[in-house]
Design goal:
Blueprint: H1 2-29, E1 39-42, E2 50-65, E3 70-72, E4 75-76, E5 79-95, E6 100-111, E7 126-135, E8 144-150, E9 188-197, E10 200-208, E11 227-228, E12 236-244, E13 266-283, E14 289-307, E15 312-324, E16 330-333, E17 341-342, E18 355-359, E19 361-371, E20 382-394, E21 401-415, E22 417-431, E23 437-453
Antiparallel strand pairs: 1-2, 2-5, 2-23, 3-4, 3-17, 5-6, 6-7, 7-8, 8-9, 9-10, 10-12, 11-13, 12-13, 13-14, 14-15, 15-19, 16-18, 19-20, 20-21, 21-22, 22-23
Length: 454
């Protein structure tokens, strides 16, 4: 046994010695080194070439007032309380050379007691992003060409959000317009170009959308209202432009920040579109399909800036969105839905917390928040109250969709550790005997989120 163990120990000591020597050298040359606040390995002394890893976990404890007729595994429930992982993600990315960048993201979403994929709760973790990118000019960001599975989108900044930095606990999901229908949780296989030309930030992409029948759910049947097309296959084209009136936003990854907490002086005008020929279909006679093109476009403004010598920080966004999916398209959706059934024949919204989230029509979305003084709570951080409002007028509905959110972030350590409380008021839609779809009443939800982001 000694003949086996001693050589192994010798090899282990030999391998460890250079690493220990290097660690000692670093300690001796930098005895007052700064505490580590990121998982980053520099490939060059100046840090311009690197590999970086991040981890994010968002845990929710939520109370929800159920839509009429809601059941949980067959049991009628007026309200529910659930615990869930809204998002759990790991990123690995880096600048390998002057020109070569890669980005990957792995994780899961909406994992609570009702979670399942094809009947199995274990099938939740997947690659969100996997792309390679070529930076054409090594000294600037004028042009980057990339391809792979990517969030790069044309509709809005909230269609490609940095979810670790969002202000309002959750993003306006209706702006992830085809989520889990013809994409993989907002990501698509794309060839794209992005960059910054002076004050203009641009993204242009050709995407190869997934057929809707591969999303793990029953494929939609052809009817009088548009649904995503199951026949044929067409490409999707996306463009998005931002004009930076003040500071430029970072351009490392395609993701866009929710709030910088006053660490930048941002004022942007934004606009974009997504187009796909024959994306949806409907029928007038129950037999022959009529194909509809999908055209989604938006204009918006975003401000995120310090106030009163950085004592406070303002974050605000307002946008207009025109979403034409095809004739009377509507899709109900409930975020991390706590229920899985409904027995009320007049219910239109669906079970649990679902409501008409996506549709053909027009929408406005507004959010505003104020970061209070950084030293407000001493070494326990500060607070950031916020509110948001969304109004959508969809062709198929007789009433508008109005969603109100208000809450407060306790920024214990900026976005790295924060506790958020959110209250939401959403509509419940019912279908009348004559076929009208109307908003019957408002229902409430409230949740506490704890986020760790490192």
């Amino acid at each position: 046994m000694k003949k086996i163990i001693l050589p192994i120990l010798a090899i282990a000591i030999g391998l460890a010695t250079p690493a220990l020597a290097q660690q000692t050298s670093l300690t001796e040359t930098a005895p007052e080194s700064k505490p580590i606040n990121e998982l980053k390995y520099n490939l060059t002394p100046d840090g311009s070439k690197y590999i970086k890893a991040t981890f994010l976990n968002q845990v929710w404890l939520r109370w929800n007032q159920s839509n009429r007729g809601t059941t949980v595994n067959g049991d009628l429930q007026d309200n529910t309380i659930d615990i869930g992982l809204r998002r759990t993600r790991m990123q690995l990315f880096g600048q390998l050379t002057d020109h070569i960048f890669f980005y990957t993201q792995f994780g899961m979403n909406n994992f609570n007691a009702m979670s399942q994929n094809a009947g199995n709760r274990k099938f939740q973790v997947f690659f969100h992003d996997a792309l390679g990118e070529y930076k054409v000019f090594k000294d600037n960001d004028k042009l980057k060409i990339g391809a792979g599975l990517t969030i790069t989108s044309g509709l809005s900044r909230f269609s490609q959000p940095s979810i670790g930095t969002i202000m309002t606990t959750d993003v306006p999901v209706f702006l992830q317009a085809t989520v889990d229908q013809t994409d993989q949780f907002g990501r698509k296989l794309s060839l794209y170009a992005r960059g910054q030309l002076g004050k203009v930030d641009y993204r242009i992409a050709m995407s190869d959308p997934f057929p809707v029948q591969t999303n793990g759910q029953t494929a939609p049947t052809l009817g009088e209202n548009a649904t995503f097309n199951t026949f044929g296959h067409t490409k999707q084209y996306q463009v998005f432009f931002i004009y930076n009136l003040l500071d430029k936003e970072p351009h490392t990854t395609p993701y866009m920040a929710g709030t910088y907490l006053g660490e930048k002086n941002i004022l942007n005008m934004e606009g974009g579109l997504i187009y796909q020929k024959d994306a949806t279909a409907h029928t007038n006679n129950g037999v022959d399909p009529i194909y509809d093109d999908m055209m989604l476009w938006s204009v918006a403004a975003f401000a995120d800036m310090p106030l009163q010598d950085n004592k406070y920080a303002l974050s605000a966004y307002t946008g207009y969105f025109n979403t034409d999916y095809g004739k009377n398209y509507i899709r109900n959706n409930g975020i991390m839905n706590p229920a899985n059934g409904n027995i009320d024949p007049t219910n239109f919204s669906g079970p649990g917390n679902a409501y008409p989230m996506f549709g053909t029509g027009e929408s406005i979305y507004i959010q505003v928040g104020l970061r209070l003084p950084n030293n407000m709570l001493g070494n326990q951080g500060t607070l950031m109250p916020y509110a948001s409002y969304r109004r959508s007028s969809y062709d198929r509905l007789d009433d508008a969709v109005n969603v109100y959110d208000a809450g407060i972030n306790w920024l214990i350590n900026k976005h790295q550790s924060k506790i958020s409380l959110n209250y939401q008021l959403r509509p419940e839609f019912v279908q009348t005997a004559n076929g009208d779809v109307v908003s019957d009443k408002k229902l409430s939800s409230a949740w506490i989120q704890y986020q760790i982001y490192f």
